[in-house]
Amino acid sequence: MTAQDLKNSVLQRAMQGKLVEQRAEEGTAKELIDQIRIEKENLIKEGKIRKEKILPKIVDEEIPFEIPESWEWVRLETAFVVEMGQSPDGNSVSESANGMEFHQGKVFFSEKIIKHSNQTTSAPTKIAESNSVLLCVRAPVGKVNITDRKLCIGRGLCAIKPLAGMTVEFAFYLLETYEKIFVKKATGTTFVAITAEVVKKQLVPIPPLAEQKRIVAKIEELLPYIEKYDKAYSKLTVCNKKFPEDMQKSILQYAMQGKLVEQRAEEGTGEELYCQIQAQKEKLIQSGIIKREKPLPKITEEDKPFDIPASWKWVKIGDIFTVIRGSSPRPKGSPLYWSDKKTDYNWITIKDISVFCKEGVLSQTIEYLTQKGAELSTYVGEDELIIAVSGSTTGKHCVLGISGYIYDGLAAILNPTKMISSSYLSLFFDWVYEKLNAQKVGSAFPNINTDILKNTLMPLPPLQEQIRIVNEMKKITSYCLQLIR
After folding, report:
1. Across 104-245, where does the E strand assignment appear?
2. 128 - beta bridge partners?
3. Has residue 238 got a pLDDT over 70?
4. Torsion over CA: 464, 470, 474, 480 (sign)
C-alpha cells in the first residue's frame, strides 16, 4: 500500500463515520443543515449570493454507503455555497501589483494552501472568498486546495464555501475523497471537465459540526505518520524496484561505453583484435571449418549510438561471429526424434534457459533427442551463446555449459575464433536486450531474424579488457544483491 493509498483509506473511513466515534450530545447533521439553510436565506436577502435552483431529491439507489444515523446525505450545494469560475477580460490580466490575484487552474496549488499567483486582474469576475476550497473543474479534474484570501477564479476552478461554522479544513478533506469520482464524471475531448451541475448535485455525507472538528483533528494527527510511512515506503520501493533494475542498466551502459574499467595501452586495441579475428576466420574458411558469408554493410558514423574509447572499435555481430538459427524435427514429440530417457543429445529450448540457466550458464535440459532427431536439428557446442528470437522471450539468452541441439525459436552466436569472451558477449546481449525487442518483425508471431542479429552493433574492447569488465560486473552485481537482501 502506498502512502497515498493509506491517506485515501483514512479519508474514506473519516467520511464513512468510522474514524471517530459519534456522540449524542453533539446533535445531528440535520440540525446543521437547517442552520445552513437559514444562513443561505439571509445571504440571499442581503444580495450576497443568488437564489439557488431546486436540487433533485436523493433516492436510495444513489447512496453509495451507509453513514451514522446522526449524519445526513445531501447534495454538495445544499451544504456549501458553490461559485463556478469565470475568466476576466484578458486585457485586464497582468503581472501588475494593482488588482485582485487571479488563478485560472491548479498552477499554484500546493499540498493544501494555494500559493500566490503572479497574475492579477483589474476587472475580477467570479470571486473565491477567503477560507474556501478551490476545486479543479478542468483537467486535472478533482484536485483541491484551500484559499486563505480573496481571489478571482477563472473557468478552470470553482470555489466551495462552508457555512454555519463548518471549517474549510473539513470541506477540504471531504472533497479530497471525491477526486476519483469527479474524474469519472468528467467529459470532453479537448478539455476534460466537470460541469456546474455535476459539482452542485454531487452527493456528500455531512456529520454534525462538532464531529467534523474531531474528524479534522484526527486526520491531522495521523498525517505526520502517513508522511513518515511515505518516506519509508519510497525508500523501500526504490531499493526493491528501481535499484536492482536501473542500477544494472546504468552499470551496463557504463561498461559498454568503456567507463567501467580503465583502458591499458599494453592490452592492445579493438582494431588489432578485429584484424586478428578476421585473419583467423579466413584460416577457418580456407580449411572448410566455417563458410564464407556475404559482406555486411559498412558501419557509418550515423550508425554509432555513442562514443567509445579510442582503443575500442564498433563492429557488427556478423563480422566476428557466426549466427545460425535453430531447427526442430517434425512432428514434435515423435518417439522417432525424442527420447524418453537421458541421451547424449541435449534438446535445448527457451524453457531450459528459464529453468536451468544459473549465473548466465545453462547446465542441463528437460528433453533429449534420439540420434535421428539430432541429425535433423542444429548443433551448438559448449561455451557458445544462444538467444531467443521469437515471441515474448525475444532477447533472453544464455551461454551453454553443455553442448546440444537448439529448437527453431533460438539462434546461436557462434564464436569460432574464441577471441571474444563469451561472458562479455553475454553482457553485451544483456545491454542490447530492449533494442532487440524493439526490432521484432511480424504481427502473428513477432521475431528477430538472423539478419537483424548479424547487423547489430557491438563495442569491441581488447580481450583482456573484456575479461576485466566481466569481473568488475560480477563484483558490482554481487554487492548490489547484498544491499537489497
Report:
1. 120-121, 127-128, 132-136, 144-147, 151-153, 157-162, 203-206
2. 151
3. no
4. positive
| Buried b or exposed e, range 223-237, using 16+ CB within 10 angstroms | eeebeebeeebeeee
For the entire predicted model, the pTM comes to 0.54
Dihedral over alpha carbons 92, 93, 96, 101 (to 10 degrees): 110
Q: How far apart are CA 85 and CA 134, in angstroms?
A: 10
Tell me, what amino acid is at 305? P
Instruction: Report d(CA 321, CA 316) in Å as an integer.
Output: 9
C-alpha cell at position 271: 582494431
In terms of DSSP H, where are the helices of 287-380? 317-320, 350-356, 371-375
pLDDT > 60? residue 65: yes
Buried residues in 69-86 as b, exposed as e (16+ CB within 10 A): ebbbbbbbbbbbbbbbbe
Phi and psi at 356, nearest 5°, equal: -110, 0
Q: What is the pLDDT of residues 211-229, one digit of tens each?
A: 999 999 999 999 999 899 8
Rounded to 5°, the CA angle 408-413-416 comes to 130
Residue 446 has pLDDT above 90, yes or no: no
DSSP assignment of 401-466: SS-EEE-TTEEEEE-TT--S-HHHHHHHHHHTHHHHHHT-B-SSS-B--HHHHHT-EEEE--HHHH
Decide if pLDDT at 393 tops 90.
Answer: no
State how far the Cα of 413 lies from the Cα of 398, in Å rounded to an integer: 10
Position with higher pLDDT, 241 vs 348: 348
Q: Which secondary structure element, helix H or strand E, spans residue 7, and what is its range?
A: helix 3-15
Handedness of CA 73, 74, 80, 86 (dihedral sign): positive
Order of strands, sheet of 322-325, starting from the edge strand that comes earlier in the sequence: 322-325, 410-414, 385-388, 397-400, 361-362, 357-358
Q: From residue 160, give the alpha-carbon distance in Å to each of 47, 52, 116, 292, 481.
A: 18, 14, 19, 79, 52
Q: What are phi and psi of 339, to 5 degrees?
A: -105, 145
Please name the helix (run of DSSP H) or strand (run of DSSP E) that holds residue 94, with its range, or none: strand 93-94
Cell numbers representing residue 159 in the block? 470555489
Give CA–CA dist 246/266, Å, rounded: 33
Residue 393's nearest CA partner among 409, 405, 406, 378 is: 409
Instruction: Name the H helices within 204-301.
Output: 209-237, 243-256, 270-286
Best CA proximity match to 437, nearest among 423, 429, 447: 447
Map residue 238 onto helix, strand or coil.
helix
